[in-house]
Amino acid sequence: MATTPPIQRAGRCRFVIPRDAQRGMRVPCHVFAGEDFLEEIKGTKALEQAINVAHLPGIVMASIAMPDIHEGYGFPIGGVAACDLDEGVISPGGVGYDINCGVRLCRSDLTLDEVKPRIREITDAIFKTVPSGVGKEGKISLSTDETDELLVKGARWALEKGYGWPEDIERCEEGGAMAGANPSQVSRKAYERGKGQVGTLGSGNHFIEVGYVEEVYDENTAKAFGLFKHQIVFWVHSGSRGFGHQVCQDNLDIMRKTTEKYGIKLPDRQLDCAPFKSPEGQAYFGAMAAAANYAWANRQVLLHLVREAVSRVFGRSAEALGMKLVYDVAHNIAKIEEHDVQGKKKKLIVHRKGATRAFPAGHPALPAIYRESGQPVLVPGDMGRASYVLVGTPEAMRDSFGSACHGAGRALSRQQAKRTMSAEELLNELSSRGVYVRSATVKGLIEEAPQAYKDVDDVVEATVAAGLARKVVKTRPLGVVKG
Amino acid sequence: MTGKYIILDHQADARIRAEGQDFAETLRALCLGMWSLMIDAEAVPDKERWEVAAEGDDEEELVVKLLNEHLYRLSGEGLVVKDLLVMFPAPGSVLTRCRGATVRDGVDILREVKAATYNDILITPTLMEVTFDL
Known about the structure:
The complex is a heterodimer of chains A (about 475) and B (about 130).
Chain A: E1 8-11, E2 14-17, E3 29-32, H1 35-41, H2 45-53, E4 63-70, E5 77-84, E6 89-90, E7 102-106, H3 112-115, H4 119-129, H5 144-153, H6 155-160, H7 166-170, H8 188-194, E8 207-216, H9 219-224, E9 232-238, H10 241-261, E10 274-275, H11 279-314, E11 325-330, E12 332-341, E13 344-353, E14 356-357, E15 376-379, E16 387-392, H12 394-399, E17 403-404, H13 414-420, H14 423-432, E18 436-439, H15 442-447, H16 456-465, E19 469-482
Parallel strand pairs in A: 3-4, 18-19
Antiparallel strand pairs in A: 1-2, 2-3, 4-5, 5-13, 6-10, 7-9, 7-11, 8-9, 8-19, 12-13, 14-17, 15-16, 16-19
Helix pairs in contact in A: 4-11, 5-11, 8-10, 10-11
Chain B: E1 4-8, E2 14-19, H1 23-38, E3 48-55, H2 59-77, E4 79-90, E5 93-102, E6 115-116, E7 122-123, E8 127-133
Antiparallel strand pairs in B: 1-2, 2-8, 3-5, 4-5, 6-8, 7-8
């Protein structure tokens, strides 16, 4: 356990670890967390990592820790850091291995009463249609030229191939494609790993969930998002698969040298970085944006497969079932954004590692459909409890670079999770909660048990109390497909 | 070769501690420890032979690059290691002679390992600890 630094209260669910210049911190650390959770993380590696992030050259305002913070590599998971574009750095550790791991939420006109009796049939149909688990390849095999196109076009590539509806694109953060993608900065190995994985779910904490809206907190915003009580929704959680892992690894190898080359002193080698405008920084940004676009194409194809599966079960088209995309958010990414810093507009490279963009009503980056309501902030929980749709706030713009939490965050290690119960007991428990699960591997399932995660209710309550987002709806799982 | 490994508790991912009498033995145990996260070695058929090599400017880089090369070969070619031998053909380079099978032989992959990381890495000739992103 690390030494607990001095922590000052700065408001409800808001705490500050003051800048310690002697230690090398360039900014303070702002922690958004409930009182109990703060006690839990005091002296842990996660909080130490948030402090370490405050050492990054060019970091502005603060290193930010979200209410779902837990230990990561260099950066904590649930961390946000914005660096000046001219004087600051970009760090692959601030994005993670699963570049643009993210979530999309699809609504429907189906209701709880219609779906509950058929949840096994629907979940089985999705499980059969969507390749899931380790090493599962999809039906799409890409040539190098096709991959190049996908890496630039992102979700639009999938749309042009017939996987989706035109309106899906505007309902993705960045329109489903980040500018600045540079396939020439992507290694041959990444191409190899990515060529058969578009339209595959992957493993670990990735999932597809059939859920229903249990509670509506904000009728007007829910209506703007197309959501209503007892409505059936579909959550898709996946990322850039082996392609993104390889891009991260390739660039971590490069950045091990750049930190020294540019005379950057850091307390943890996993924070290795390069000035954003250096050749290495630009190379990573171009490759990372390409991987982000791979992830958007992947989730677009996954949604298409879910629509196909559900459509088959009900014998009606996805259009007739009202299966519209609500939104798609990235929670592992670094993006160029403009923010107010001490009263001045500044372009920053904003790292969100296990954090969700949460832009409020009126933000120019939002699509017209959400400009009046604010951005849907998608916060999945675990497979036994709940998930939330929140909406961004002006306070988040001011205090967290327009960011909020991204999920429940792990509470138990995988080893600990395995000790709590057997896979059979877990399936029985989920069944008693009315949740039907299909998984590529039962052994992997136990590591993702609800007990392994913090209660997402607590994470969301702290996020809302801190003013970073408002609650719109809460959903409950009925059927889950795990990788 | 009598090196051994254990899986240590890690909040989000997995950490392997490997011990041996020298660098080669410890590295072999570390590789097998990583593979134990993904497969049951006993259940892997002994059908294929292949080599996996890596180079590094220091021992940490050498080890991490080797482990990631194994993951890449699994991802790209489906190669699953049952056992391996570690050799050092030149300073700064490592070669592993592997035996095992491919995923097409029906090997059950228990979970995905995304990457070997430098996070809190410990590399000595007789003790190694590496964290793996799952």
